[in-house]
Specification:
Layout: E1 3-12, H1 17-33, E2 37-53, E3 56-68, H2 70-82, E4 86-93, H3 96-105
Antiparallel strand pairs: 1-3, 1-4, 2-3
């Protein structure tokens, strides 16, 4: 059964950018190789960890949203465990209710900026009230 998953993993920030990108590419290709479809890859960047992990204070955070069978998660978690560049990871299923709500309301997944709504400006008329409390009436 095809389900939606989201995975956040932290890559060692001391690695060069090329190796960080290679690590991200490796894991996203693993998803597609096992029959999954990557929906979103969001690089959150280098952030300070809440606590030290393996004597590291910083990590490069990556958010991946994908869909596929359950065996993909097993392979992805196995790959994360074997990769020394990955400091921590977490993969969870997206609840069906959240998926339905996103499609019904056209809500963007986390990490993706929503489109800005147009700002409506009304011309000031004779009957307009002052916005500031210091203006005289």
């Amino acid at each position: 059964m095809v389900r939606q998953y989201e995975s956040i993993f932290i890559v060692d920030s001391h690695l060069p950018n090329e190796q960080i990108e290679a690590c991200i590419t490796k894991h996203t290709q693993l998803i597609e190789k096992n029959g999954g479809k990557t929906k979103l890859i969001d690089r959150w960047g280098k952030k300070r960890l809440a606590f030290e992990i393996a004597k590291k204070q910083y990590g490069f955070y990556v958010y991946v949203r994908f869909e596929g069978e359950g065996k993909i998660c097993q392979e992805l978690n196995r790959s994360f465990k074997l990769d020394d560049a990955v400091v921590r990871f977490l993969t969870v299923t997206v609840p069906k209710a959240a998926c339905k709500m996103e499609t019904a309301q056209n809500v963007q997944p986390p990490g993706k900026a929503p489109e800005e709504a147009p700002v409506r400006v009304e011309p000031a008329g004779v009957d307009s009230k002052p916005v500031s409390g210091n203006a005289e009436v």
